[in-house]
Specification:
This protein is about 20% helix and about 25% strand.
Length: about 210
């Protein structure tokens, strides 16, 4: 039985875990590696070629693993991750509980999160903003607010219709059993507490995260 098929059981026992990605306010720290994605006709989900000495994070949503990479070589892999309760895909709006596919950066870090640690991603990035603007899901001022933040190396606005507060986090006081059985987040990538502590040794603001 897949995680999504267990939804009915999940609804009974996982109330504490709901709202996992909410209220994780970002610290407006400039990215160490500001970037400006090229204009895309759709959200970029294809992998980028890493630098030989680059440490980055690969989230494989099909294998349900998170791997720390050094160039093209895996350094450490964490299994049995949890995703959004609606699975992974192209995130279209706030509240759809979907983990966004794409290429992101860690925009802020909260070491005192109720979920142990929270590494916020720069979602919605420019790829998502451009597609949403073309499809008239966001206004012109919202699009330019996201674009300005990205081009200046800041965390994009987190309260637009596209959603926000997407990141990688631990469990805090949550149930390891529920974590092992269900995709339970609002769209974040969740590890257990030991895994998130180990991951903290590898990442920093500006670290690239690819969710495939």
């Amino acid at each position: 039985m897949s995680r999504l098929q267990k939804w009915g059981i999940y609804m009974v026992g996982s109330l504490w875990l709901l709202g996992a990605c909410a209220h994780q306010a970002p610290v407006q720290t400039a990215l160490k590696a500001p970037f400006t994605p090229a204009l895309q006709t759709s959200v970029r989900t294809a992998p980028l070629l890493p630098l030989a000495d680059e440490t980055w994070v690969l989230v494989d949503t099909k294998a349900e693993t998170l791997t720390v990479m050094k160039g093209n070589k895996p350094v450490e892999t964490f299994g049995n991750i949890a995703l959004g309760s609606s699975g992974a895909g192209i995130k279209r709006q706030r509240g759809d509980n979907k983990t966004p596919l794409g290429v992101f950066r860690i925009g802020w870090m909260n070491d005192r999160s109720r979920f142990n640690r929270f590494f916020g991603l720069d979602y919605p990035n420019l790829d998502y903003a451009e597609q949403a603007y073309r499809e008239k899901r966001i206004s012109e001022p919202t699009y330019y607010a996201i674009r300005s933040a990205v081009e200046n190396g800041h965390t994009p606005p987190q309260t637009t219709p596209l959603g926000g507060f997407i990141g990688i986090h631990g469990l805090g006081a949550g149930s390891p059993k529920l974590h092992a059985a269900f995709d339970w987040t609002d769209g974040c990538v969740a590890l257990d507490n030991q895994q998130i502590q180990r991951l903290a040794q590898w990442v920093q603001v500006g670290t690239r995260v690819e969710i495939r």
